[in-house]
Amino acid sequence: MEGPLGKEFHEEVLKINSFKGYLLPTFWVTSIILVGIFGYTAGNMDAPPKFLAAFLEAWEEIFPNKGQFVEVVNVDQFSPNNVLSKEPDRIISDSAPAHINQKKDTLNKNNVLGTRCFYGQGGKTQRNTILINEIAWMGGLDSEDLSASDEWIELKNISDRSIDLSGWLLVDKDDQIKILFPEGSIILPRSFYLLERTDDDSVPGEIADLIYSGNLSNENEGLRLFNKECLLEDEVIVEGSWLAGDAQNRRSMERSPDLDWHTYSGALIDSILGTPGRENSMAVVEIVNEYEDKQKTEAESISSKFSLCSQGVPSMPTYEILINEVAWAGKSENTSEEWIELYNPTNKEIDLDGWQLLDKESSIVIIFNKQDAIDNYLLLKRILSTDDPSKEYKVGGVVADRTYTGVIQNSEESLMLFDESCRLVDRVSDVGSNWNRVGGTASPDYRTAERTDIENWHTYSGSGNGGVMGTPRSQNSTPEIITIPSGGGSGGSSGSSSSPDIESSPEEETSFCSQDDLSSPTHIVYINEIAWAGSASSTNEEWFELYTSIQGGLSLSGWQLLDKNREIQIEFGTDDRIDEYILLKRILTTDDLNGSYFIGGVGVDYTYTGVLQNEDENLRLFDASCNLVDEVVDVGSSWINIGGTASPDYKTAERAGVGAWQTYLGAGENGVMGTPGSENSGNNEIEDESEEEDQDEDQDENEGDSSPELEEDSNGNGESDTNEEILNLEIEEVIYDVEGADEGQERIVIKNNGSSTVILESYSIQYLSTTGDFTNLKKKNFESGHQVESGEEFVIGLNCSGAIPCEGVDMSWSQALGNTGGMVYLVSNQDAVINEEDLDIIHSFLYGEI
């Protein structure tokens, strides 16, 4: 069949198209070869890889169907217009799922697409299709079985058309995160794309669109999103701290409509304080609206008649009205749900016109007016500056009498109530960290601090009502009676009344030993083991163990065990004694003081209340005359200077010598990663100082010990006889910028050139990139059991993740090494080095072209 236009026409068309079909590829291939040759010559042999990548990309552009089935069509079936028309554009159906992936994928750096883009190239941001919309750089809540490692990133398509992300690249400042989006990564109009770190458990209840490796730094970080043409679509630049987000409360950083950033302001949803896969929360900002205009007008009217009372040197309070209850931590659903209750202990109504309630920094300024009077209770509730103060607000089911703005600080806060003449009526001061000197709790219970009497406070002891762990506009709960009976009990202060009474005087208080200007410890009893992180089943499962080697034991009558901020206050009774080990376990204020408690299968001797802090904590044991018996100080962050671990192992810190500690070395028993009521792991013994004179005679008998004897140096620190071998450790090799994919392939190799085994568990490896200073140092601590034999190597794998683990290494680290070079330090302790001259540096290794 010759077709409607004749055979000659169709033969001409085929000739033209054949010529055109070869002309364009010939032009492209010739051009790229010339560019490649020039780049190879001028680029000092750095061009071939880039030339090859460009050539392959161009080849795929010209022959997009390579290796695929090609349909042969009969040109007789088409009109000239059809023959000469171009191929229609690719159309993505908007009826498809919001983001289409054939499978969840991790970064595939072997694909040449995307490797042309790198963080440092920057460029002008497009910001017209895809935005970096939300970042959980701080990770997830520990109380929700998440951790700081549970990071995630959300992208949003702000356009009205579907976008194919295939070949796009998301990279962070230090190349720890390099995400190349796989084929089929499509995001529909106004939809979201969720990326979760390491696994699909970082955001409970949400299925990740892509799993990635690498971590976001908490400061001096950056993220850049490039399209497949290496044009910069969006970026987030962090100089110092992040632009928003809350590390302490684990609230995400969200994009605002004006492309600025704000902290997630909503409640906890599905264990997350953020909006993964959903529209962002509203930014809580100080904006001028009709409500603020009204408040401003009222404030200006008040300020024209009043000036704020001075908080400088206040006089003795009159106690005419009491600050009776404070919900300083808010509630579990929303930490902004703070409130304050005032109480009138008299039998007459008191007019509050002109009175003032101020916090330490005057963030809270409440100036009462003619409508404010109090006959028994007055309930004050915090609202946001964007809320309408004329509306009715409730605490649980109780209507608030008045609202205010401002934030009650969790530490170093005060509240002062003044009358119209600026005479001090009542105050709450010296609250300590997390109000530990007053009362109340934050996560997970969020209990209020309640007034016991004029001088004392306690933590709400009830079971809650209406979602509120407190007693708004009603009588306070009965405080726990905190004593230590013989054979068991709890440490802390006591109280006897559930309602404040200005006529009553507090019971005689315990005089606690001073922790200032202390003499050297007597060490007749040791703080021997500490479960400072709790257990895997509950972080509340904290406990201590005391130990003495004195034959016949000791009476503990009048002795005290105190932590740094006296949140833990244990005073032993007249019948209390120690014969070898005694075990003390933390209980909650709502627990039965007379109950029987166990750690694993071991019975507890004493109970106490209060929380061990995970950093900047001290523990001190005093005898009845306040002589220092033993102490644990300078624990560092997560007790890295002492021992023990938090998630996932929750191992205890054990005494390894007079001035030395270690992390529990065993495999655990009955769910306890420690040795309650028994000898510490590793056969470490604490020598009684009264027997130190005999150590020389016993030295021959101890030569068979598997671990070096620990002695106390002049500074009271444990010193091992392997210390001289430190000088024979060196960083032998750094492997970085592996051809192809770096994930799981980077290495740091440490060599022991000495003649003895070196225990590494108290050491650390530290890394500094070329673009950072010592405030940006990255650090990995060696762990229990890490050691390197004489003449052997210890291999650290870097850029490791659950998806791409490091194989055949002695220790894994998620940190990625910069491809341009950097400095690696082997350090004799686990403190961050402060400069290149730091005496704790054992060996340093400079790699790359610096």
Which sheet architecture does the biggest sheet show? Answer: 6 strands, mixed
Low-confidence blocks of residues = 1-5, 13-20, 39-54, 64-114, 285-292, 298-305, 481-499, 501-508, 687-726
How many individual β-strands? 53
Beta-strand portion reads 15-25%
Query: Can you name the CATH architecture of the largest domain?
Result: Sandwich
Mean pLDDT: 78
Distance between the termini: 72 Å
CATH top-level class of the largest domain: Mainly Beta
Strand pairing plus helix content: what structural class?
mainly beta
Domain count: the total is 5
Q: Tell me the CATH superfamily of the largest domain.
A: Lamin Tail domain
| Count of alpha/pi helices | 5
Topology-level CATH name of the largest domain:
Immunoglobulin-like
Helix content: under 10%
Rg over CA atoms: 34 Å
Could you say which overall geometry the principal axes of the C-alpha atoms support? Answer: globular
- Write out the strand line-up for the largest beta sheet, numbering strands in chain order: 9-8-3-2-12-13
Biased composition (Acidic residues): 685-714
Protein name: LTD domain-containing protein
Keywords: Membrane, Transmembrane, Transmembrane helix
Domain LTD: 124-266, 307-477
What does this structure look like?
This is LTD domain-containing protein. Keywords: Membrane, Transmembrane, Transmembrane helix. Pfam families: LTD (PF00932). The structure is a single chain. With 850 residues, the protein is mainly β. It folds into five domains: 78 residues; 195 residues, Lamin Tail domain (Immunoglobulin-like); 169 residues, Immunoglobulin-like (Sandwich), CATH 2.60.40.1260; 173 residues, Immunoglobulin-like (Sandwich); 126 residues, Immunoglobulin-like. It has five helices and 53 strands. The protein has a six-stranded mixed sheet, with no helix packed on it. Strands 23-20-15-14-26-27 form a six-stranded mixed sheet, with no helix packed on it. A hairpin with a 5-residue loop joins strand 5 and strand 6. Helix 1 packs antiparallel against helix 2. The longest helix is centred in the N-terminal third of the chain and has 36 residues. The protein is globular and about 80 Å long. The termini are far apart.
